[in-house]
Amino acid sequence: MSDWHPIAGGITAPAGFQAAGITAGLKASGNPDLSLLLAPAGAVCAGSFTLNRVRAACVDLCAERLAARGGQVRAVLTNSGQANACTGERGLIDSLKATAELAQRLGLDVEEVLICSTGVIGVPIPIEILIAGLDPLLAALASEGGEAAARAILTTDLVVKQIALEADLGGRKVRIGGMAKGSGMIHPDMATMLGYLSCDAGLPAEVWQAMVRRLVDCSFNAITVDGDTSTNDCFLAFAAGEPLSPEHWPALEAGLAAVSQHLARAIARDGEGATCLLEVRVEGAVDDAAARAIARTVCGSSLVKCAIHGRDPNWGRIVAAAGRAGVPFALEAVALWLGEHQLMAAGQPLAFDRPAASQYMKDRAAGTYLSADPVSGDTVAIRLQVGAGPGRGLAWGCDLSDQYVRINADYTT
Questions:
Q1: Are the beta carbons of 50 and 234 closer than 8 angstroms?
Q2: Separation between Cα atoms, residue 240 and residue 16, nearest integer Å
Q3: Using CA atoms, how far apart are residues 129 and 132, in angstroms rounded to an integer?
Q4: Catalytic residue positions?
Q5: What is the pLDDT of residue 189?
Q6: What are 59-95's pLDDT values in tens digits?
């Protein structure tokens, strides 16, 4: 397996990709709010979209255009500040108008242009402001525009979420880049709030789509902040470049998984009001899907999340959450660890140093959160053994604080 290592550049690190992010005036805050990602000619794109029955018109438009063109699309425009969901016929009209205007400026077929929106549900795009921002956005388009693009897609996020990796595959350098946004309304049932991936290796469309489906399951579908899925969840992954021979596909997929999981963990760590990242590892399930289901249920438990925030090693909440995941397992096979502290064995509680276990959690949240780097030492790790099966799974979440309530209690007032 190839050794992937981090490099600078984010979403534009792979060859041929360009991006831009500007302040167009869509947000009253004056923060960056309009972003563009442009893939090279010949790119293939695979997407994954929210399964929420209440979804923004832009989500359906993206899915329809990807299907119609067999993944042959080039650009994605993102506006931040307005979800443009539940806005009636205007939602689709504005999405069509924005993509048509951008396609004309880029010299592309309109079907090659996608649009994603994020912000407050029920608020339409100030479409004339967006269109006025297209020329400045294109003027800013650059192969070094990754960070600006990643910043312009944010809403309540505290940090920019981006990553790029490089490896030698078949005697040439291959690069993968990614960016994402998300902080609240995170419990994806497909992907994440908004996520984008770029890769400068060429693959057949059907192979790329299959890889993306697997990536979503082990990354963005394995995170939760608050149990709420969004109307606008969308993950778009672009591949463009010299074809990569099949013998290197497993190595490429390993790198893609590393990028996707980094972004997913960054979203969970940046959960609204969070003080630490929660990682749940489940082993011994009947298969990987069952293990992931248990892990995600534990991560999503409000009682577990509150206990983590209170630095309370209340192991009963963990096993109770595991038991309602809809996955059969025998209680007498359960073993549980919090960090290095073993709390259960063979389904029975063990004597453990409760103050030390509590201190372990306190130590994980002792630092100041300055970045979305999930390898920052502020991860509370739970490991749950549920049997002797081959299934293993990971999920990520965060603690639940009173700050989350404050952020969301008056979100629109």
A1: yes
A2: 8
A3: 5
A4: 192
A5: 73
A6: 999 999 999 999 999 999 999 999 999 999 999 999 9
Please tell me whether the overall predicted TM-score, pTM, comes out greater than 0.85 for this model: yes
Is 302:230 a contact under the CB 8 Å cutoff? no
If one counts every other C-beta atom within 10 angstroms of the C-beta of residue 317, the result is 19
Q: What is the DSSP string of 132-194?
A: HTHHHHHHT-BTT-HHHHHHHT-SS-SS-EEEEEEEEETTEEEEEEEEEE-SSS---SSS-SE
Cβ-contact 15, 168 below 8 angstroms: no
Domains of the chain from N-terminus onward: 5-269 (3.60.70.12), 277-409 (3.10.20.340)
Instruction: Report the relative pairing of strands 75-82 and 113-120 from DSSP bridges.
Output: parallel
Q: Are 44 and 239 in contact (CB under 8 A)?
A: yes
Q: How far apart are CA 320 and CA 308, in angstroms?
A: 15
Q: How far is CA 310 from the centre of its chain?
A: 26
The SS3 assignment for 31 reads: coil
Given CA atoms 25, 77, 200, 155 in this order, what sign does their dihedral have?
Answer: positive
CB count in 10 Å sphere of residue 25: 15
CB 235 within 8 A of CB 59: no
**Rounded CA separation 71/54 (Å):** 24
State the DSSP code for 202.
B
Distance CA 60, CA 49 (A): 9
Q: Which residues contact 43 (CB under 8 A, 6 or more apart)?
A: 72, 73, 74, 238, 239, 240
CA distances from 137 to 22, 36, 133, 406 (A): 6, 7, 6, 34
Q: How far apart are CA 41 and CA 15, in angstroms?
A: 12
Question: Residue 388 burial (CB < 10 Å; 0-12/13-18/19+)?
Answer: exposed
* SS3 of residue 114 by DSSP: strand
How far out from the chain centre does Cα 338 lie?
Answer: 25
- 231 Cβ partners below 8 Å, 6+ apart? 50, 52, 54, 55, 56, 59, 83, 85, 86, 121
pLDDT, tens digit (0-9, with 9 covering 90-100), for 305-355:
999 999 999 999 999 999 999 999 999 999 999 999 999 999 999 999 999
